[in-house]
Amino acid sequence: MGRGGGKPGARGAHAGRKQTWQEWIDDYEAASECIFKHDVEATVIEAGGLARISSFLPEFVAEGILTVLKSIPDSKWNETAAREDYRQNNISHSFSSVKQANGLDAVIRLFTLVRPEALHAFSAAKYCKRDHIAPHDDRAYTQVRLDSGRIITTSRDLAVIYYLTKDWKEEYGGVLVDLEDTAAGPSGRRYVPQWNSVVAFKVPRYHAVTALTTDRPRYSIFGWFLLPGKRYPLFTGDDLEQHKQRTLRAKHGQQPEQEPEEEGGEDEEEDKDEEGEEGEGLAAEEGAEEVQAAPRSHAGAAGSRGRIEQPAPKRHRGAEAGAASSHQGHSERRTEDAGAVVGGASAAMAMGSGQVGSRGGAVRSIVRLPGRWQGRRKHACI
Ligand SMILES: O=C(O)CCC(=O)C(=O)O
Ligand SMILES: [Fe+2]
């Protein structure tokens, strides 16, 4: 059964028939027990900043989630693509993503259990032939409207990608390359997407997705947990020289230089008038495969349907509304997480039963919550 554990019918008051994957997700005790036991965050830290966890969910749940993604009509997927353009803070990328679709809400809710109290922004992704993401480090700010109406700036802190790729082979491309793990070689460690596995890492971390060579779609759930404040600097234009140096070093197979980390977070800062400070990072890292060195960050999550409570002043309205701009930087960055249900407080918190959150150890209290974890707060990224 693997670490994911569980099987249809194993739990719940569903005597006489098997529990469906949706029922399993709605069964807070089962879902939280499964996610908590992986202790994703601790595993990431122990592994030095990036970890892969296999057999993440019970097989029938993984199958259910794949069904959700496969049944999303083409028209719902937001294609996002951009060429590398440092002036626009774009990195070269293309893929499709969506935040809202039948059944996806529950799936995303499940992944929020990785860090229950945190604000987050998750999407489903579909990569087709030639889709890819050039090297980047995921640094970005996301503005979040809290229940109170207050708007705060957050920084991506923990990236989580869940792969729904069966029997994926390296030659299909779509390989996640961890450019910061050079123990495996100067061009980084390669993670061939593995069915029902999670790769999680602390942001910032340079990585890339190599171009797909297959007609098979590469499905995943991906997103970030966000922390209030500005936890790192973003590209301002001065990084260009550093970027060039890194590119040169990468070409010569030298180790990338570690960037000094800056703690810039002003917690819970009111940020309504800081549009000028948003933007994507920009700096180069060694390329993976044929991918050129590129800016350090792309905006990531796409899908802008619904839940945008108020148009952001600098929102990009490109051809692919929201999604198109979602991997672009600077002026487009607001759009990146637009439409996200940034469900900060977990059900437990919202319900005042609050035990689930302690990240202190592997064992956490499990709190039974009402079906569908009612009462979860819904914050919105704007
Ligand atoms: O899908 C992956 O393997 C990584 C995706 C990624 O890096 C991103 O969306 O920023
Ligand atoms: Fe990324």
Automatic annotation (TrEMBL):
SMART domains: P4Hc. Residues 117-227 form the Fe2OG dioxygenase domain. Its cofactor is L-ascorbate. The keyword Iron applies. The keyword Transmembrane helix does not apply. Keywords: Dioxygenase, Iron, Metal-binding, Oxidoreductase. Residues 245-342 are annotated as: Disordered. Residues 258-280 have a biased composition (Acidic residues). This is Fe2OG dioxygenase domain-containing protein.
